[in-house]
């Protein structure tokens, strides 16, 4: 579904609802409400029944004449550039998310490498100090001569 389809469908439905409600109000005001006003819910029930009936009739007329389809076709040229711009924005957002993800992975990898490099350096330094101490201890002992 395109943006024109969505807006056209909503606009067509709103027009039909408004027309059905207006027609129902006019019919009730014209006299139907007077004849059934002896019941407490009479005008309300009449309004609901008439509105639904008129709405169904308007749907049939719309299906026969294709008014909503024509409205969608009329809106399409106006909304297609908007829809294209929205698609481009979504695509740019996806690309930015992907780039950020790659940057975070790269940053984490570099941080991990630096951390492991420090660990290896410290281990090497400690091993060198240990060996130097051991070699120093050996130098203090005299090696027997034969």
Q: How would you characterize the largest beta sheet?
A: none
- Poorly predicted runs are none
- Strand content is under 5%
Number of domains: 1
**Share of helical residues:** over 70%
Q: How many angstroms separate the termini?
A: 100 Å
The tally of beta strands, per DSSP, is 0
How many DSSP H or I helices?
Answer: 3
Q: Can you give me a brief rundown of this structure?
A:
The chain has 146 residues and is an all-alpha fold. It is rod-shaped and about 135 Å long.
Brief descriptors of the model:
single chain; 146 residues; mainly alpha; 3 helices; 0% strand; rod-shaped
Please characterize this protein's 3D structure:
90% of the residues lie in helices and 0% in strands. The protein has 3 helices and no strands. It has helices spanning 3-35, 42-65, 67-140. It is mainly α. The chain has one domain.
What layout of secondary structure does this protein have?
Layout: H1 3-35, H2 42-65, H3 67-140
Helix pairs in contact: 1-2, 1-3
């Amino acid at each position: 579904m395109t943006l024109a389809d969505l807006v056209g469908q909503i606009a067509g439905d709103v027009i039909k609802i408004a027309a059905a409600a207006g027609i129902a109000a006019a019919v009730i005001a014209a006299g139907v409400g007077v004849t059934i006003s002896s019941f407490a819910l009479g005008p309300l029930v009449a309004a609901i029944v008439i509105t639904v009936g008129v709405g169904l009739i308007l749907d049939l007329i719309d299906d026969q004449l294709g008014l909503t389809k024509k409205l969608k076709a009329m809106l399409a040229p106006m909304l297609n550039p908007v829809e294209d711009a929205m698609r481009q924005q979504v695509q740019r957002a996806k690309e930015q998310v992907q780039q950020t993800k790659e940057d975070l992975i790269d940053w984490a990898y570099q941080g991990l490498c630096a951390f492991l490099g420090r660990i290896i350096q410290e281990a090497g330094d400690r091993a060198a100090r240990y060996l130097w101490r051991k070699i120093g201890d050996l130098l203090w002992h005299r090696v027997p001569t034969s």
